[in-house]
Amino acid sequence: MDLELTNQRFIICGASSGFGEAIARQLLREGAELVLVARRGDLLREKFKDYSGKINIIQGSLIYDDTIDQIEKAAKSGELHGVLFNAGGPPTGTPLQTDMKDWDSSWQLVMRWKIDLAIRLAPILTKKNYGRMLFIESQSVKQPLPSLVLSNSFRAGVVGFAKSLALEIAKQGVTVNVLAPGSHETPAIDRVIKNNSSVQGITYDEAKKEMEENVPVGRMGKAEELASLAAWLLSPKSGYVTGQTISHDGGVIKGIFG
After folding, report:
1. Which of 57, 126, 157, 163 suits 95 as a labelling partner, its CA being 20 to 30 A distant?
2. Domain boundaries, the chain
3. Residue 182 in 3-state DSSP?
4. For 9-182+221-248, CATH number?
5. With a threshold of 0.85, does the pTM exceed it?
6. For 22-28, which contacts have Cβ atoms below 8 Å and span 24 or more sequence positions?
7. What is the pLDDT of residues 32-61, one digit of tens each?
8. DSSP state letter for 137
């Protein structure tokens, strides 16, 4: 299927590894042009050296206003077709294992920057009556995960924001959706496996195997699998899908609307 992404321009946050990297590579294969954002610019340049003519790089942390300013400037410097909101998650822990410093820092890491950037970029997209906004969150927004109270809480808040924004700008041709991935073979899953290993007193490999056995399809997902769905949601083909939170979890979510 031709996703009609040739020469379309996207901003990809958290592009240096995991889902962000996989989605960036998928879009580049489809002919898109990208603004890649990550803390390590050198890593981005090395990983995407074969696409030097199709990318621009912004080095910086998404929790800092200076980085958001740079992204906004890049968005205004050329035609923009969409943006991927993606970054790492907060520390593990149960409610009683956290303190207010954890909550304050996690608000910055998981939620605040996404709201700030979305509010800045939405007018750019609505002005030309076309755009795609896609948030990468977690299956925890549908079914909270043990020992991940910070992620459970703030990612659910992002979904509420995204749904509200989707309704506000739908008539201007801009879609807003959320992908809710389950366990995938990405660097981010390591912290969850390590926490499960520590809590249960089992080895890392045992904790990983247990996690895989709890997935109905019997394995973890691949970032490339999620990337193919993300590319479609970022394409012109998905114009009638907005305000949705779509699971990509191998069947883990038990709810009938999972």
Report:
1. 163
2. 9-182+221-248
3. coil
4. 3.40.50.720
5. yes
6. 22/223, 22/224, 22/226, 22/227, 23/84, 23/86, 23/226, 23/227, 23/230, 23/231, 23/234, 24/48, 25/227, 26/224, 26/227, 26/228, 26/230, 26/231, 27/231, 27/234, 28/54, 28/55
7. 999 999 999 999 999 999 998 999 999 999
8. -
